[in-house]
Amino acid sequence: MHIAAAVNSFRYYSRSRLRARCLSTIGNSKSTVDIKVVNGEGTETELRKQQLWLHNTMSKQKELFIPKVPGKVGMYVCGVTAYDLSHIGHARVYVSFDVLYRYLNYLGYEVKYVRNFTDVDDKIIARANELGEDPIKLSRRFCEEFHQDMTYLHCLPPSVEPRVSDHMPQIIDMIQQILDNGCAYRINGDVYFSVDKFPEYGTLSGRKLEDNRAGERVAVDTRKKHPADFALWKTAKAGEPFWESPWGPGRPGWHIECSAMSAAYLGYTFDIHGGGMDLVFPHHENEIAQSCAACRESNITYWIHNGFVNIDSQKMSKSLGNFFTIRQVIDLYHPLALRLFLIGTHYRSPINYTIVQIESASDRLFYIYQALYDCQILSTQHDEASLKDSIPAETANCINKFQDEVLSSISDDLHTPVALAAMSDPLKLINDLLHTRKGKKQALRIESIAALENTIRNVLAILGLVPASYAEVQIFFCCLVSSILYAVTLSREIDGPSGAYSAYYFQMMLC
């Protein structure tokens, strides 16, 4: 029996048992977390309100976040084109904006989070033709696969999740508005946006109009008035899905869908529009042009974009064929290890996926959960009624410093790596109190351990890293290691990716 067989056996076990338990509780996670400072006398006080600063792609600088409506936030994030399993580049987008969503909730905002599905697209049609499936049914299937991936990664569901196929009336109405305002033209059943009619075109990306390429996902159409003009509506081709419109049967272009659906649920003016950095041009540039052409009052305050996931210093993408799906990664590592890996680099910086990096994240995750699990075990051995209300000054100072560092770093453009690094001191103190001779003699030791565990768990909730239970994660790691060690014992070799499993030997000894 080789290592691959053992891993396949573990995949079945983990999906059928461990993740089933995990999934049953993820949807019940609190998105708003109350973090309190505990002083030396045991008094709890609310932390001061944090000012959130976000890097705005439009202004190219960090800006203080001020919502259009006090206390409320409208946020739209471009979703996936659902024709295949999502890769870890997609995971980074939605984990990054999940952290923002959670933190806005923590700060007390009422957030309306809209994330769409593109279920009508050239790529979907091409894939459906390859498989002999109906394009809409194929896309619906991969929408559900995406939902499962997001659940594994602890991404909270958005407030609204519109699909293109359900919003044709809104899309057609917006195209008609753009035509009526003189910013588009018709050619034999197609409708194109005229970039010459929008002088501000290129403001987001910093591109000059003469430098812009014709568009994305489609061949250059020589009928266009300007090479950068882009399709709002495409006339139907034989065998493709289509909808009736004033310009004849057809389907929408890629860009118009997000303008129409964001306006339908958030209005023409809202706070945050986000997505991957690859969407700055042409997708978001075209969205701005369309929305403003349809409604002059259209305005989005903050444009936020996350950096790429690279492999071998090249952007990971399906079109390049150099990608790992989320499923491929979480077949070997706990899903929250992937989430930890993704937030371990600032969301705007590129991140390079390597075995070493994901193993390091897995080891770190195990270390955190092992410490917190030990805290819980110790706490269950003591009667809560007998515990004191106060904690030592050293513990209080550690907690206060940790919380200040976490909140100041996340408020500074979601600097999650600093927040994760700040966890080192309270974890070290926990392990000292649990395992060292000096720590075991500390006054109010149990109270300190309980307070530290609670504080770290609350911060993990903001970061989306709270598992169904710490014990569940221990079982996950130990079962994987058991399968691997059994295979190694029989085969005397590891025939998987070089070094991919080495990190778990130490973990096995700890289980």
TrEMBL record:
Swiss-Prot/TrEMBL cofactor(s): Zn(2+)
Keywords, comma-separated and alphabetical: Aminoacyl-tRNA synthetase, ATP-binding, Ligase, Metal-binding, Nucleotide-binding, Protein biosynthesis, Zinc
Enzyme class: ligase
Single GO cellular component term: cytoplasm
E.C. code: 6.1.1.16
InterPro entries: Cys-tRNA-ligase, Cys-tRNA/MSH_ligase, Rossmann-like_a/b/a_fold, tRNA-synt_1_cat_dom, tRNAsynth_Ia_anticodon-bd
HAMAP family: Cys_tRNA_synth
Protein name: cysteine--tRNA ligase
Native source organism of the sequence: Solanum tuberosum (Potato)
Encoding gene (name): LOC102604325
